[in-house]
Design a protein that fits this description.
258 residues; alpha/beta; three-stranded mixed β-sheet; 21% helix; binds iron/sulfur cluster
Amino acid sequence: MYDGWNPWHGCTKISPGCAHCYVYRRDEAFGGTASKCRKTAAFDLPLRRDRSGGWKLPLGSWVYTCFTSDFLLADADDWRPDCWKMMRERSDCTFCFFTKRIERIGSCLPPDWGDGYDNVVVGCTVENQEMAERRLPVFAELPIKRRLIVAEPLLGHIDVSPWLGCVEEVCAGGESGKDARPCDFEWVLALRDACAERGVPFSFHQTGARFVRGGKLYKIPRRLQHVQAKKAGIDIPGPGERRKRPPEPTAEQLELPL
Ligand code: SF4
């Protein structure tokens, strides 16, 4: 069972991978802007119960957290302590967030973090070699129990080999949207091969809208991007639970008119 929780919405672009951010695209499609971060009505979702008294986020859920923002965004510093408390209280769930601001985590952790919460998975996003070399050395040194490398949107060849020893999975995928930059299958395979060499699970999430294979550019419709990636058959399954890709936010989650 997996679910989503967006305690806040909106973000600031900080690196090349943000250029065609889907949160901005979705907000603009509904006449809004994602440039201003705001707390959402779903802020306390992990602690909410339904009419029968059960948790709204079912017991044992895998919870994609903050996927319409960045969990380590400075604008959310005042709100994050309550989120850590909710994650702590819902120790039956696993909370997973991706970030392009891993260097901020030291100043964002709760006092009882220790060497990490068992139920929090942190995904460090790297879209090119420059970002990998900037973020992954920091990531590898942090007290985090469960780590992922998220190479999305993949914008070039990346060598993540020096940091594979500390992660439980590497995910890769291309960019979606009408202005998407091409994703070359060779880049994906290079990541996959590095993972295979070290026995690290790997998941090819999606091809992106412009996918290059064998030197030829293919335009892939949104509905087929995930399917085509899976058809490539290059995933390396992990021993633990299988995860799905983060859900794209619905208009309701974005709190925009349908
Ligand atoms: S960090 Fe993520 S959510 Fe924020 S602007 Fe960049 S791509 Fe969008």
